[in-house]
Design a protein that fits this description.
Layout lengths: L20 H26 L1 H8 L9 H14 L7 H9 L4 H15 L1 H9 L1 H4 L5 H11 L1 H9 L5 H10 L4 H28 L2
């Protein structure tokens, strides 16, 4: 199984840090990424009421509900540290629409939403590495690689952003992060969607 190489290719280059065009370009990209994440988080919180109002219309959308669930799930998981209640919405929609369709739509959307955490880790690597939880979670990620992302994405917890941040800080390949994150999120959403469907049969 692939593991993460913590070695940064730029560390092997000669010359003082930050003196090469590539390092300056990386600095600009990191600042752009963190500004984007902060702006996105603030924007999503500012329109939280609109998102809530839109979710109330989803049961009336028929087959168009699935792309709508996908979009709402992106928004629900794109906020840093304090996510909107995406799993609750998945249970509600699972009681209305086909649970598998709901789970796939919500899981794929959730994995894309986690890009905000990945970008935050990529852009703020120095800050992330000074957190108390960094050594423990990064140790899991370096040792177990894919399984760490899969399990943390599957377990219902609001702290997956931390795993996404560490994946970004460790420079885990983005396609690899998205694949295992999406797999874990879809499996988790299946549980909640079918739970909502089962609860609906009791009434």
């Amino acid at each position: 199984m692939d593991k993460i190489d913590k070695t940064n290719p730029e560390d092997n280059r000669s010359g003082p840090p930050g003196s090469t065009p590539s390092s300056r370009r990386a600095t600009v990209l990191r600042w752009a990424a963190i500004l984007f994440v902060v702006a996105l988080t603030l924007y999503l919180f500012s329109i939280a009421n609109r998102i809530q109002a839109f979710t109330e219309t989803i049961p009336n959308l028929g087959w168009f509900a699935y792309p709508a669930i996908f979009g709402v799930s992106i928004a629900a998981n794109a906020t840093i540290i304090i996510p909107l209640p995406g799993v609750v919405l998945t249970s509600i929609f699972g009681s209305i629409f086909h649970p598998i369709g709901v789970a796939v739509s919500a899981g794929l959307g959730a994995s894309l939403g986690e890009l905000s955490g990945y970008l935050a880790g990529f852009s703020g690597q120095g800050i992330i590495e000074r957190r108390q939880w960094y050594d423990r979670v990064s140790g899991w990620m370096v040792k177990y690689g894919n399984w760490t992302i899969l399990i943390l994405a599957f377990i219902p917890n609001p702290l997956f952003d931390m795993a996404g941040m560490i994946a970004g800080a460790l420079k885990m390949r983005l396609p690899r992060f998205l694949f295992w994150c999406a797999l874990g999120k879809i499996l988790k959403m299946l549980v909640f969607a079918y739970a909502g469907s089962w609860i609906a049969t009791l009434f």
